[in-house]
Amino acid sequence: MKFKKYSIGIVVLLLIPGITFLFFATPSQITEVQPKYPDYVGKIDLNKATRTTEFSLCKDENKPHGFYSSSAPHIYKKNKLEFREFIVQHYQNRNRNDNGYLNLRFHINCRGETGNLIINELNADLEPSNLSATLVEQLVDLSMRNENWRTADHPTINYYMYLIFKIENGNVTEILP
User: Fold this and answer.
1) Taking CA 116 as the corner, what is the angle to CA 82 and CA 72, rounded to the nearest 5 degrees?
2) Where are the bilayer-spanning segments (predicted)?
């Protein structure tokens, strides 16, 4: 009985250094430093995006251009003023009284085609909300027209674009950026 207790004690004492060695020597235990913000501006989660089935980005080793709206003036087919005028001319309120913001985030490939759309609807206090479905559908359809967007000067460049529509009483009062 005494021998059994000593045997168990010796085995435990021998296992502790071995387990410790394995714990610190195993590569899976070494943690990599993860960046605080692992995604880049313009990254669109394709699992949450719409208009993805017949859309593909052009082969580009880089991330889409257009971070922080820096290239937005170059993405519009003509310019932002004409884009705004097009929206104002074709948008119809249809007696809606919505207030808030409609944010559209999407990609434009090198052929000027749009896709990978993410839609965010916010109330006037910038909290998630639901705007009228027909209002959203109409602004999405008008904004995503390929005729609005320029093709890239380079055959593999893709763009990231976002639009924020300020809605007051169902009317588009501002388009940002």
Assistant:
1) 35
2) 6-26
Structure-token match 């052929």, residue found: 111
**Tokens standing for 127?**
């909290």
pTM for this structure? 0.70
Q: Which pLDDT tens digit goes with each residue over 74-86?
A: 677 778 888 899 9
Amino acid code (one letter) for 169: N
Angle between helices 80-90 and 133-143 (to 10 degrees): 140
DSSP string, the chain: -HHHHHHHHHHHHHHHHHHHHHHHH-GGGSPPPPPSS-SPTT---TTT-BS-TT--PPP-SSPPB-GGGTTHHHHBSS-HHHHHHHHHHH---TT----EEEEEEEEE-TTS-EEEEEEEEE-TTS-B----HHHHHHHHHHHT-GGGBPPPSSTT--EEEEEEEEEETTEEEEEE-
Report angle CA 71, 74, 79 to the nearest 5 degrees. 125
